[in-house]
Amino acid sequence: MLDLAIIGAGLSGLALADRMRQGQSRIAVFEAQRRCGGRIQSRALPTADFSVDLGPTWCWPEEQPHIAALVKRLGLELYRQWDTGHSLYQTDVAAAPALYSDTETYYTARKIKGGCRQLIKGLLKDLPDAMLHTQHRLLKLSDHASYIELEFATETGLQHYQAKQVVLAAPPRLLANTVTFEPELAPKLQLLMQETPTWMAGHAKAVLVYPNAFWRRQGFSGNALLPYPGAVLSEVYDACSVQGETAALFGFFGIAAASRERYRGSLEDLVVQQMTHLFGVAAAQPLSVIIQDWSLETFTATEQDHILPNSHPQYGHQWLGLDHWQDKLYFCGTETSAVAGGHLEGALAASERVFMALQNR
C-alpha cells in the first residue's frame, strides 16, 4: 500500500512529490499523459537551441517567493520581457494601430531561459523513476475507512492501487467531469468543482518564428494590444531568446474556441495576415507558425472551459483547501490557491499548503 498517491505530474504535483520524497518512500505520482508538466509546455525550435513557451510564459520573482526560491534552487536563468520601442494599440480592424510606449507593465516580469519546462526538468531530475507512473488516467476513487482505492486506465488495462492518502493535483473542474468518487462528494463541493474555471483551458497561443527580429530594428517592441471584436490575436509580445539571436513573436488568440474550430484549417494564415497588417511585409514570411489550443487538450479542458471568464477568477475557495474523507483526500493545483491562483506561483503555493497539512496531520 502506498503512503501517498499524487494525481497529476504538473508543477504542483511534482513540487509536492519533491517535498515529500525525503520523508516517505512509498509515494507515487500518477500522470494521465505521456509527458509531465501539465499546462507547462515548451516547444524546442529545430533551427536553434531555444524553446518557446506554449503555456505559462512569465513569472514575477520579486513578488512571488515560491517561484523565486525554486528558480534559485534549480540554478535557472531569468531574463526580462523585451519592451523597448514602440508598442501598438488597435481598436478597430480598419483603423491604423496607434503607437505608445510601455516599460512598466512587464517591468518585473521574467522569463526562464530554456522555457518554463526547465522547472519540470529540474524537479524530475531528483525524482526516482519508480515513483512516476505516466499514462495512468484516473477513473475512480473509493473511500475504504483507512485507505483509498484508486482505479486507473492504462495501456495494458485497468490498474488498481491503494493509498493511505491521495492528493489531487489536477484542475477541480476536470476532476469533477472525469473521476467517479465513491461515496459521492458533498453536492456543494461537486458544484464548486464544476464552477471553478481551469486557468488557460479555453485559451490558445500562436508563436511565429522569423529569421531576425525586424521589428526591433524598426523601433518596435513587438508588443501589441488589439481589444476589438473579431481580432484573431488580442495580445502580441516579443518572444525572442535572451540575446535576440532567435527571433519570435507570440500572441493570445482573441477569437473564442468555437470560432477557432470553425477556422481551424486557416488559423495560421489568419495569424500571419494580422501580423503583416501590424508590422508590415517583413512579417509575412515566418519560418514557422506554432499554434497551441488548450481547449483541445483532453487532460486540460472541458466543454465548460470553452467559454472564457470575463475576468481573472477568484481561486482558492476554502473548501478546496480542506482535507476530505477523514484526512485522506486533498486538493492541490493552482486553482486551489488563494495566492496567485492560476499562476506558477499559485501551483507552488498550493503544493506547500498541502505539504504542511500532510506534515501536521
* Shape type: elongated
> Whole-number radius of gyration?
21 Å
Distance between the termini: 19 Å
Helix count, per DSSP? 9
Q: Write down the CATH topology of the largest domain.
A: FAD/NAD(P)-binding domain
CATH superfamily of the largest domain: FAD/NAD(P)-binding domain
Q: How would you characterize this protein structure?
A:
- With 361 residues, the protein is of the alpha/beta class.
- The chain has two domains: 1-40 and 118-198 and 311-361, 3-Layer(bba) Sandwich (FAD/NAD(P)-binding domain), CATH 3.50.50.60; 45-115 and 202-296, Polyamine Oxidase, Chain A, domain 2.
- 23% of the residues lie in helices and 27% in strands.
- It has nine helices and 20 strands.
- The chain has helices at residues 11-20, 65-74, 117-125, 172-178, 187-195, 214-217, 257-262, 267-279, 344-359; strands spanning 2-7, 27-30, 42-44, 51-53, 78-80, 86-89, 98-100, 110-112, 132-133, 137-144, 147-154, 157-168, 180-182, 204-210, 220-225, 233-238, 247-253, 288-293, 323-324, 329-331.
- The strands form four sheets. Strands 1, 2, 9, 10, 11, 12, 13, 19 and 20 form a nine-stranded mixed beta sheet that branches. Strands 7-6-15-16-17-14-18 form a seven-stranded mixed beta sheet. Strands 3-4 form a two-stranded antiparallel sheet.
- The longest helix has 16 residues, at 344-359.
- It starts with a strand and ends with a helix.
- The model has no long low-confidence stretch (mean pLDDT 95).
